[in-house]
Specification:
single chain; 389 residues; alpha/beta; 60s Ribosomal Protein L30, Chain: A; binds guanosine-5'-triphosphate
Length: 389
């Protein structure tokens, strides 16, 4: 499946960088083009793979290239004011080659959290291709304002995109790591999941052994549930010599994969992917739609294994809309990716909303009490001075 990526804010840009890096190293080739949008000049300069010509600095007349300091209302305003500059960059992309847009942003800050929904709304207005979001939730220890931003942005963003894939930093952070090296590792994990999912939909059918390959329409139909999605992943190394890193297969041996070992490997991988650490932890029962992709060398891609895993996921989620297929690649591992779309039972989102309501109430109370204190202070110094105006 071919995508145009738009990274908004610092996290958005860095994650897009990580996705491009994975795409190039593995030759998965699902990214057609990229754009990075920011209010901070320094963040754009830090990008490694999004070329300068594809970068848009917004809000210069208001924030002079210094960012919006976690003020997501300001992030939304300046993005809306300069959205013409972003749209003219999108206009330069080969849109006829893409299947969808993916807008990537951290939802806890100001630029990505405020700007991403604005860009989504404009793209949906102009283009017929689906517009998906990839939103990153802040970790708990980032503080109230990040939580409040994320809760508000989530509500707006999910309403503007065709589907919002979420990644929760809280579920992925590890103690004892510096913030930067921690982010770099989790961005790579995220890139691997999206890389396998979206490049699976890129298999062109020329492959003689690819009998049940996933295609772009299956990904689009799965995401068509709307709402929020989460992605699971599990992999196992094969006991055989390494072959390349992860390159697409062109032709290959005939399929002799339906033996018990290959079948069991696949069913156990899919269970681990769906029940292990998801990009957004949630209860999988009640999921609206799902997709299972199993990637690996064709001689171990058991179709019966994938079918069994698909049926298992139908039972676990309680929906009949589980699609499944394989993705033949040269590798010395087998990997399963599960895309669960339209998930509702998400404790973290409920928690974010509850904390955000409390933070908003606290902020309002503090604002009122500061206003009262200031009035008291000024009044107490009543020395007969006339106010200026
Ligand atoms: N996974 C991941 N999350 C990140 C990364 N960098 C920042 N974040 C998260 O993204 C959130 C938003 O931060 P930024 O992207 O820096 O904020 P911004 O959108 O640039 O907005 P302002 O800095 O306020 O202008 C933070 O709360 C972090 O949770 C990253 O490299 N990877």
């Amino acid at each position: 499946m071919k995508l145009a990526l738009i990274g908004v804010g610092q996290a958005g840009g860095k994650v897009v960088d990580a996705l491009i890096d994975y795409d190039r190293r593995t030759k998965s080739d699902y990214i057609v083009d990229t754009i990075a949008v920011n209010t901070a000049r320094a963040d754009l300069m830090g990008l490694r793979f999004v070329p300068e010509a594809h970068q848009v600095l917004v809000g210069t007349s208001r924030v002079k290239g210094h960012g919006v300091g976690a003020d997501n209302e300001l992030g939304a305003e300046v993005t809306a004011e300069d959205v013409g500059d972003i749209l003219s960059k999108v206009d330069d992309l080969p849109v006829h080659e893409i299947d969808a847009f993916l807008i990537v942003a951290g939802l806890g800050g100001g630029t990505g959290s405020g700007g991403a929904p604005v860009i989504a709304r404009e793209l949906k207005h102009i283009y017929t291709e689906p517009v998906y979001g990839l939103g990153i939730l802040p970790a708990r220890n980032e503080g109230g304002i990040y939580t409040l931003n994320a809760a508000r942005s989530l509500q707006t963003f999910v309403g503007e995109v065709d589907n919002l894939i979420l990644f929760d930093n809280e579920a992925w952070r590890r103690s004892g790591e510096s913030l930067e090296s921690g982010y770099s590792e989790i961005n790579t994990e995220l890139a691997r999941r999206l890389g396998i999912l979206f490049s699976a939909g890129e298999t062109d059918g020329s492959n003689a052994v690819a009998e049940s390959v996933v295609d772009a329409s299956e990904i689009i139909n799965t995401l068509a549930s709307g709402g929020i999605s989460t992605i699971g992943y599990a992999s196992v190394e094969l006991d055989r010599p390494k072959q390349g890193l992860f390159s697409r297969l062109a032709g290959g041996p005939s399929r002799e994969a339906d033996n018990g070992e290959s079948m069991n490997r696949i069913t156990s991988l899919v269970r681990r992917a769906a029940l292990g650490r998801l990009t957004l932890p949630c209860e999988i029962a009640g999921t609206e739609r799902g997709l299972v992709v199993v990637a690996g060398p064709p001689d171990v891609l058991s179709r019966r294994g994938i079918e069994r895993a698909r049926t298992w996921l139908e039972e676990e989620t309680g929906t009949m809309e589980i699609r499944g297929g394989d993705y033949p690649v040269e590798s010395n591992f087998v990997a399963a990716v599960t895309l669960l779309s339209g998930v509702y039972n998400v404790p973290r989102v409920k928690e974010l909303q509850a904390v955000a309501i409390e933070t908003q109430r606290d902020m309002l109370a503090k604002r009122q009490s500061s206003a009262a204190s200031l009035e008291e202070l000024v009044d107490s110094g009543d020395d007969g001075l006339e106010p200026l105006f």
